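Hi R.,

Here's the chain you asked about this morning:
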Amino acid sequence: MKQERFAALHSDGWDELQRWLDLVDAKQRQTLRDPRANGFPAEYRRLCHHLALARARGYSREVTDRLQRMVQQGHRLLYRPPAPRWHRALMFLVAGFPRLVRAEWRCMAAAAALFLVPALGCLIALQFHPEWAHSLFGSAQLAEFEKMYDPSNAKIGRSSGTDLAMFGVYVMNNVSIAFRTFASGLVFGVGAVYVLGANGVIIGGVAGHLTQMGYGGPFWRFVVAHAAFELTALVIAGGAGLKLGLTLLAPGRRRRGPAMVAAGWVGAQLALGAFAMLVIAAAIEAFWSSVAGFPDSLKFGSAALLWLLVLWWLARGGMGMEAADGA
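And the predicted structure, written out as tokens:
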């Protein structure tokens, strides 16, 4: 085939591809969301074939140089080095994790109900029947709660320990609870149901008892900020555990083994994100929540911002970034 015929057949496609490649160089992230990005590998192979034909047939430098530049440009796009690990981890937390939470919203909603219903039930019930607190906790436990949230304390929420030491304690405690909540889902989901319900009763019971006896001020000032991350992470870990249990009970059209592997991978990612949230919660709890000297407006104002941040992140994080991440 003569050069003129070859160029006439393919020049429109080359022009269109060149414009797209230039656009990718200028605005890479936005352009990679274009559906055309998924078909680019095939276009790149076709372009390499055209270059090989042009060279084999001895076409002019005008044609071969143009194709060579486009091949090099496409090669840089197709084989660009992967993002560093820290960037991938950050993108998972910013975008991948909230997308995964939204994708599993049914399990998350069930986990939230299993935790919130007993928590609110205990909180309200103890305002009318304070004696029920002795059915939930021993006398020594109630005395310890009252000591931790005594309004006269310089530090609230704890009776000893430095901020740094308590940060380590909170991390270990929070992560262990979340891990038990997630892993207990393997017992056909019953374990996750129990752990979520039990934590709801304990947290609601403590809140109800302290509020009823007049220590509600220090208690709510202590928990309201870090609860945005801590309680949300507990619910997410519980939702991941419920997904494992439900998949074990009803794998659907897939065989139970492959279905459990897929559910385990999803659950592990959810648990990983929840653990990251718990580390943030522990830092807030150790270095901010325990400070008694801050005014209520600052405590509750900052807590409101944290709750809005967490809810917005889980509701909107990663929207519209699927194509870019997958390219």
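Residues 118 and 173 are 21 Å apart (CA to CA).

Let me know if you need anything else.
M.
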